[in-house]
Specification:
By secondary structure, the chain is an all-beta fold. It has a domain of about 70 residues: Jelly Rolls (Sandwich), CATH 2.60.120.1060. About 0% of the residues lie in helices and about 50% in strands. The chain contains no helices and 7 strands. A hairpin with a 2-residue loop joins strand 3 and strand 4. The termini are far apart.
């Protein structure tokens, strides 16, 4: 997950087409991330905030989001102290071991 370092959040949109009802992952910052960088993350579904949390390199955050009825999922991340950002060819953040649970056909 990219982190916005210029005052605006970096966003990634996933089109789920109402096929999933849960996202589980561990949000964290990659080893190449500047040591003291603080990042605010917002996970939204269809323009509705589902989860918000702060990340530091030392403290990954478990993510467990209810996606019932969600068509479009957006992950947005912004550096709080963006003066610490450097140039990077790879994202600072990650949603590790991410799993989407499909809606059962029931």
């Amino acid at each position: 997950m990219w982190v916005g370092c210029s005052g605006e959040p970096a966003t990634t949109t996933y089109h789920l087409s109402h096929k999933y009802n849960r996202l589980q992952a561990t949000a964290g910052l990659q080893p190449h991330t500047p040591e003291q960088l603080n990042v605010n993350v917002t996970i939204s579904g269809d323009n509705r905030t589902l989860e918000q949390f702060a990340l530091t390199k030392q403290n990954p955050v478990p993510v467990d989001v209810n996606l019932n009825g969600v068509d479009s999922l957006v992950v947005a991340a912004i550096a709080v102290n963006n003066q610490l950002c450097g140039s990077s060819g790879t994202p600072y953040g990650a949603l590790g071991n991410a799993e989407l649970t499909e809606v059962s056909g029931g």
